Amino acid sequence: MIEAVGLTKRYGRTVAVNELSFTVKPGRVTGFLGPNGAGKSTTMRMILGLDRPTAGDVLVDGRHYRDLPRPLRHIGALLDAKWVHPNRTARAHLRWLAKSNNLPRQRVDEVLELVGLGSVAHRNAGAFSLGMAQRLGIAAALLGDPQILLFDEPVNGLDPEGIHWIRQLMKRLAAEGRTVFVSSHLLSEMAQTADELVVIGRGRLIDQSSTARFVERASGTAVRVRSPQLERLRTALASTSGAGVRAEDGALVVTGLTSDQVGEVAAAQGVVLHELSPQRGSLEEAFIRMTSGAVEYHAEESGEHLHLRGARGAEGTEGTR
Amino acid sequence: MNLLAVERIKFFSTRSPWWTAVTALALMLGMSALFASVLEPDQLAVPATQAGYDLALVVVMVMATLAITTEYRFNTIKVAFQAEPRRTRVLLAKTAMVALVAGVLGEVAAFGSWALAKVIRPAADLSIDSGTEWRQVAGVGLVWALGAVLAVAVGALLRQTAGAVTLLLVYALLVENLVGLIPEVGPDVQRWLPFTHANHFVRGTGGQPAGAEVASAPPFGPWGSLAYFAGIVLAVLVIALVTANRRDA
């Protein structure tokens, strides 16, 4: 469990994180979503006690990070895969970390095997590819078998196999009942791994909700229908209250109705359907729309604003997902 | 104790400490061999065997600086503070580890240089039998250990290798010697500077072969000078610790 309350970080006149409050709960993957420069890494550094908040507070299992005895046993983190001495071997890097938290030496080899670096443990970390360095960072995070895990942009620069591996790992860790907090600037990435989202823009909280709800609210939903009797269907749908209809390359895109309702309207009219599929709006587009105007939002009323903007925005959104 | 072991693993698992240690040792032995072969046996005394101690001290301080500044350069200090958020403990463990290595290295270098001179000039009177002579040889390790502490502290304050090494080198090799050249006030200022006191402790006044000329008489005896040097080193260390706890890692 991670709890941030009014977390704020200022560098001179720049406000990197602005009165951020959120909670990260165990047993699920929580995505920390925001564009580059939104304050994700700064927030993570404050969680780990590396940076001192200008105001507000962040607690790990009800305690400040600095008050955790042997913290690697509580919370493991991968903030940057490059945080290793290039002339030190992977094993030596993990050995000093293990020693610092009084972890048994064989744990080092265990985690090296776990991340698939067993055969290159004797090699200098500086010679590692980004993917290998990322795995070493994850090995370090898992070293103390912690209940809470923090990953900052873990899939950046990885090949598809590495990405797949990390996604599976995060899901598995969450399924084991651990708290997994992972940052990303890609909503599409988060949509595949995260159960819950903490969304920030320009240091402020935009939304905290389940991924499904966020995606729904952000993009709105639409239903795509194809029929040989398209004009008849269009007329029928247009007269249904609350529905928006537009034509799109030989099909209709209906907003404001569920696919069930569209099907019922078609049946009542005796119209043959060749396709009836619910559509998701483009996530990235919706995300950009929401975060680019982040300063307009105020924490208390962000939900309302989002809903309105999201619904309106969905009209022009092409269904690609 | 764990944190000391951590620093031991870190210190010996990269190459630069080995290189700098070997360089310091070679400098000490080389200078001793040089003086032993150049001086006549009746001129050669115990202090001459330690002629390279201050040059080698600078190399030891580079070694100590690197131990902390590479942590900042490669951001492993953040990982270290993550593993042990009580930063004072982390930095004190590192300081202790580096000081211990510098101290042991200093004793090995000092007695090694003395033994080397004895081998080269068996005829010279190089027996260590007075308290002064013991101080002149064994004192090297103490000064190296304190110099290493100062270097770690400066490294932790500046957080980058180039800046810290330059500052320490220019200060120890140039500034303290040049201050004495300032008319009127120079010598009075110089007699209160730290490395002047370190020198005074190891070499005593007068009779040193390669030492800086100290125009004014030192304010303390040799052991007082060591205490004064240690005091300044500890003051810088305290400033470094307070600073490290205050700022973002």
Q: Strand order of the main beta sheet of chain A, please?
A: 5-6-7-3-8-9
Individual helix count of chain A: 11
Question: What class do helices, strands and sheet pairing of chain A give?
Answer: alpha/beta
CATH class category name of the largest domain in chain A: Alpha Beta
Question: What low-confidence regions of chain B span 5 or more consecutive residues with pLDDT below 50?
Answer: 206-215
Q: Return Rg of chain B in Å.
A: 19 Å
The counted number of beta strands of chain A is 13
Total DSSP helices of chain B: 11
Strand content of chain A: 25-35%
Q: Which structural class fits the helix and strand makeup of chain B?
A: mainly alpha
Q: Could you please say which CATH topology of the largest domain in chain A applies here?
A: Rossmann fold
| Total domain modules of chain A | 2
What is the straight-line distance between the termini of chain A?
A: 32 Å
Protein name (chain B): ABC-2 type transport system permease protein
Organism (chain B): Streptoalloteichus hindustanus
Keywords (chain B): Membrane, Transmembrane, Transmembrane helix
Transmembrane segments (chain B): 18-39, 51-70, 91-117, 137-158, 165-183, 226-244
Relevant terms:
heterodimer; A: 321 residues; alpha/beta; Rossmann fold; Alpha-Beta Plaits; 6-stranded mixed beta sheet; 4-stranded antiparallel beta sheet; 11 helices; 13 strands; 36% helix; B: 249 residues; mainly alpha; 0% strand; ATP-binding (chain A); ABC-2 type transport system ATP-binding protein (chain A)
Would you write up a description of this structure?
The complex is a heterodimer of chains A (321) and B (249). Chain A is of the alpha/beta class. Chain A has 2 domains: 2-215, Rossmann fold (3-Layer(aba) Sandwich); 221-280, Alpha-Beta Plaits (2-Layer Sandwich), CATH 3.30.70.100. Chain A has 11 helices and 13 strands. In chain A, the strands form 3 sheets. A 6-stranded mixed β-sheet of chain A has the order 5-6-7-3-8-9, with helices on both faces. A 4-stranded antiparallel β-sheet of chain A has the order 11-12-10-13. A 3-stranded antiparallel β-sheet of chain A has the order 2-1-4, with helices on one face. In chain A, strand 1 (2-11) and strand 2 (14-24) form a beta hairpin. With 249 residues, chain B is an all-alpha fold. Chain B has one domain (2-246). Helices cover 76% and strands 0% of the residues of chain B. Chain B is built from 11 helices and no strands. The radius of gyration of chain B is 19 Å and the shape is globular. Residues 206-215 of chain B have low confidence and may be disordered. Chain B: Keywords: Membrane, Transmembrane, Transmembrane helix. Chain B: This is ABC-2 type transport system permease protein.
